[in-house]
Write a structure and sequence with these properties.
4 domains; elongated; about 325 residues; mainly alpha; 7 strands
Amino acid sequence: MPIRWSALKVKEATDKVEEIVNPILEPLNKAREVVREARKIPNLPEYMGQRLARLEGEIERVTGGMGQDFVRDSEGKGSYQEVHRKGYIHRAIESIREELPKNDLAKEQAHLQKWLDLFGGDREKAEVAMNIDRPPKGEVPKEQLAMAQPAFDKHDQAWSQHPMYPAPLEERGEQLPERICDDGTMAVSEVEDIEPELDDDVVEGKELCYECGRSVAQGSGGFVNRVPSFDSEADREDMGVPYPEGGYSCEECDTLASNGEDTVVYYLLLSPEARRERGIPEDFEERCNATESDDSDGDGETDEQRIDRQAMAIDKAYDEGMERKLLEGAQGELLQ
């Protein structure tokens, strides 16, 4: 199968690289000799000799050097022998040359020489003429298509027998277009209107936390772990949440609720600066005051009374805990 790229240009580019690299080898070889002499300095410590040896090895990676290779003879027997190894740049150049398609390269060279003879050695005109002979970019030559067609047919046949292969349109209850109209549209007979199915799990509301008002939109930091609320905004208003227009609960509020905490009380007990650091909107307390006189849970106690009672319970527990710690400390001193 003929190639679509220029093996000749790859070869010429490789030759140019080698031409540029070769002059560098002479000063590197001189540098390597200097390093070898430095390794012979008397009383040189071992760690310094190791570093000089490493420097010599790095130079030989480019220039090449002597090394041990396992060489086999004609009888298949072999042994390690001292041989000269080329540097990694020249080995890379040789690998490119070895992989070039020899037949295509020879044909391209002969083709170029034909146009060079025709244009009196003008390389630019010869290359223009060669490019005209090549198929346009993106177009596959007909002979390549003909050679690849059996493989395409084999693939299609195997795929049609696969369990995941989609059934024909007729078996799926779909209709094929009968004809193409003059205006370019497809005419289909007896097309039934299919009403879209509505998803019951649709979040109604903004991308805000209905408990604290923080944003849970993408990029806010609360998008990944937000918990959707499938209640309507009217239901959330009846629940007495501060931000009923929000359709989600943020991670922190969801965790507090899971631990039995009252999120409104929790945030109201924080200072305005602490709420601001957490990203809670400035109108949070105002939102809470709008509903604090309501008996949201129907237990005969207003929200304001419940907040005061819980705050007093927290203060009392704190005072009792401190008193207990002081008493335990005093008892420990007496025992000593």
